[in-house]
Amino acid sequence: MAVLRLPYLATAVLSGALFGAGLYVSQMVDPLKVLRFLDFTAIPSGGWDPSLAFVIVPAILVMFIAVRIGKGRATPLFDITFHEPEYRKIDRRLVGGAALFGLGWGMSGICPGPAISLIAFQPDGLWIFLAAMFAGSLAGSLILPSGHQRRLSDAAS
Amino acid sequence: MEAFSPLTAALGGVLIGLASAVLWLGNGRIAGISGIFGQLLPPAQTVVWRVVFLVALVAATALTALAFPQIGVGGVEPAQLAAPPAAWSIPMPVWLIAAGLLTGLGTKIGNGCTSGHGVCGLARLSLRSLVAVLVFFGVAILTVTVTGIV
């Protein structure tokens, strides 16, 4: 099975390592720095930290190039297909989910990448946050329609 | 380290972009952390790569902090989580549990977070991701404004 072969797993390790290095180097691992970006009230006083925008734009540009390269290929290097996201509809679920996430993100300055990345530093309270995030994700999967096909037909309607 | 840091930000952004590019062109997978994290339980055949990805992510964070401590938080400065607004007298664990639950629930229902929708989705020119990004950035900015948490 492709997903257990060495090149496939090595790719996952390389990607995870680049991601973790990127989160530290960009300081997006620091919840307080992320909050200083989200604090637009600090713009008039000059205390706003626009760093997050300087992280996400280059990240998008690099990935944009990779997506273009991928379009010229039938398959990725180590799997039989590109796993394109299957849900296309802009619905209440998407907007509601994004709003709930935005609320949690604004309360903490922690999105899922940095949440995992912070394990490297074990700040006080991190495991409480991680356990709650995992529980929230599980709760979400119970709310969503069960079964892959049902979700797909739901998304297509 | 309070200050705006465009150079390390951009360098880190390129690394995150490369991480997404490697996973997409190598394994045809979206490097969305909420998706990788949220599917750690069965169906099991994809669990192995998700676990090794997350372990590598944590290890690389620790190693780059050791190699470049001067960058700041986690290197020379202890990492810390944000405390709830003082005036609200909400205990820290309650605040963290609420924020964590909302983050887990929201990213599951909305199919993505800052990496999946924000980096990969926008790079794929997905309209769905654009909507999600505008909503979660908008709500997060509003939340910080209302709570005055910074």
TrEMBL record, chain A:
Signal sequence annotation: none
InterPro entries in UniProt: DUF6691
Ranges that cross the membrane: 7-27, 47-67, 98-120, 126-144
Keyword list, A-Z: Membrane, Transmembrane, Transmembrane helix
Keyword Transmembrane applies: yes
Name of one Pfam family that matches: DUF6691
Protein name according to UniProt: YeeE/YedE family protein
UniProtKB/TrEMBL annotation, chain B:
Membrane-crossing segments per the record: 6-26, 47-68, 88-106, 127-149
Principal localisation: membrane
Keyword set includes Membrane: yes
Annotated keywords: Cell inner membrane, Cell membrane, Membrane, Transmembrane, Transmembrane helix, Transport
Compartment(s) of residence: Cell inner membrane
InterPro entries: Sulf_transp_TsuA/YedE
Membrane topology label: Multi-pass membrane protein
Cellular compartments per GO CC: plasma membrane
Family classification: Belongs to the TsuA/YedE (TC 9.B.102) family.
Official protein name in the record: YeeE/YedE family protein
Organism whose genome encodes this protein: Devosia ureilytica
